[in-house]
DNA sequence: CGGTTGTTTGAACTGATTCAATCTGTGTGG
DNA sequence: CCACACAGATTGAATCAGTTCAAACAACCG
């Protein structure tokens, strides 16, 4: 099967991304020209620890980043993902979450201070930021439903659908290069990796997906959307 | 035991609340003078259905409101709470969540349009809004850890601690008038009401709480914080 | 008083975890 | 090219936390 390069692999540009979502050119330019460094982050290495200051704006150009927390006994929960074209806004005080790469990622990092200055000069950015955080809140809420109310099969199915959608892949036609290990899927869906493995086997046995290593093709896209009760509306912002 | 009136019962004023969190007076005044109506919402009656337009700003003066969603099979999950002094911002398109009162609530409702106008005239509000949504995101993340990684006892304990904190109650000294039914606690923590009931009985048996109807006193505040691995930092915004 | 809403309890069941072992693929250095 | 190490995937068996279903009980309200 021929597969387009997903955004996760190609890398996306900041200014172009901002204009695409409707930001006016001068504001997008100002953000693009903000002082920043480009950082390559390796998966599962510590990048930003929970509790450290988070006085930076970040923009993901390629790869996938995640925010994670852990409960008292050290069990890890991934609470948010950032795909290429998405960003991480600064937190006022020290953040309660850590940052890591899911897959090798290339990100732009600027200072919160510079960012605040640009926003002040271009107030139109506020509306854009507002949409951004709204979308993130929607996704958080959907994840909460996922962890709180769906069984393990539905949770994994839902994550697969969401991942395909956020990678810009049409599950009905294209296959998905899964960026996660089963342990990471467990950390997102609140399970153990052992069970995630069994769910995958079961999804394949039921003819919903086919696997070749980490390549997932959706043998029955509509059915897997149903199983995961995936309604993509919440992703539209 | 003598108990202070919690904020949930007294009602709080918009302008005063805004000034208290650092908004400048003219902006707070402008928001306070925005055209609005005051609505009384009864618990568990439909108030705003999922999928309906959400072109309103709301401010909770008393009671507690919740955002809820349901998965495919109709199992309900409460994804966010709004205590007095907190607000609900408009969503750009139709919201994927519904709104309901947890306890009888009194809320102020204004139009998104008027709100946008005021924000435009007082750009300083943006910083305030930004802190607001950051705090909400933090809480969402914490809830995700709660549902995804903690066992049922810890989930309930954590919710009790969070609720006390958000009601402005010091668990070590004051008792908490629990605003939730056990079913609602189940909807927040992703369980069944049957199990929530057992958890309560167990918490009481272990000497962590004492109950008189819905009045909860924390017999061992430090220990219940530990059991729920409650670190209140995430509430500070 | 009767109706409604919420709480409590029991018994049977099941989905997911835990622990442990094995297998597979990939990369590294000799 | 092989040996080795390592990370991730897979499988099995025992156990347990939480669900489901059903019924009883308590409190409240018009």
Structural features, described:
Two copies of one chain form a homodimer. With 237 residues, the first copy, chain A, is of the alpha+beta class. The first copy, chain A, has two domains: 7-122, Jelly Rolls, CATH 2.60.120.10; 147-236, Arc Repressor Mutant, subunit A (Orthogonal Bundle), CATH 1.10.10.10. Chain A has nine helices and eight strands. Chain A has helices at 7-10, 14-20, 25-32, 112-121, 124-149, 152-166, 182-189, 193-205, 221-227; strands at 37-41, 56-70, 76-82, 87-88, 98-111, 176-177, 209-212, 215-218. In chain A, the strands form two sheets. In chain A, strands 1, 2, 3, 4 and 5 form a five-stranded antiparallel beta sheet that branches. In chain A, a hairpin with a 5-residue loop joins strand 2 and strand 3. In chain A, helix 2 runs antiparallel to helix 3, helix 6 (152-166) packs across helix 8 and helix 7 crosses helix 8. Mean pLDDT of chain A is 92; it is low at 1-9. At the A-B interface, strand 2, strand 3 and helix 5 of A face strand 2, strand 3 and helix 5 of B. Chain A binds a DNA duplex (30 and 30 nucleotides) through residues 151-152, 181-183, 191-195, 197-198, 200-201, 213.
């Amino acid at each position: 099967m021929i597969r387009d390069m997903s955004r996760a692999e190609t890398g996306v540009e900041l200014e172009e991304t901002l204009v695409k979502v409707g930001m006016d050119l001068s504001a997008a330019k100002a953000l693009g020209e903000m002082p920043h460094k480009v950082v390559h982050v390796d998966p599962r290495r510590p990048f930003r620890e929970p509790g450290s200051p988070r006085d930076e704006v970040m923009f993901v150009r390629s790869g996938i980043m995640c925010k994670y927390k852990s409960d008292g006994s050290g069990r890890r929960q991934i609470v948010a993902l950032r795909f290429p074209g998405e960003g991480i806004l600064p937190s006022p005080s020290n953040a309660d979450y850590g940052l890591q790469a899911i897959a090798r990622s290339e990100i732009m990092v600027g200072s919160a201070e510079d960012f605040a200055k640009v926003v002040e000069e271009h107030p139109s950015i506020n509306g854009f930021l507002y949409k951004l955080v709204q979308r993130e809140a929607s996704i958080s809420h959907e994840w909460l439903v996922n962890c709180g109310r769906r069984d393990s099969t539905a949770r994994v199915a839902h994550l697969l659908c969401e991942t395909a959608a956020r990678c810009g892949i049409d599950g009905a036609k294209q296959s998905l290069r899964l960026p996660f290990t089963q342990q990471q899927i467990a950390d997102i869906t609140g399970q153990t990796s052992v069970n995630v493995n069994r769910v995958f086997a079961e999804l394949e046995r039921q003819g919903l997906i086919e696997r070749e290593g980490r390549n997932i093709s959706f043998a029955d896209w509509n059915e897997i959307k149903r199983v995961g009760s995936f309604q993509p509306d919440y992703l539209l912002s």
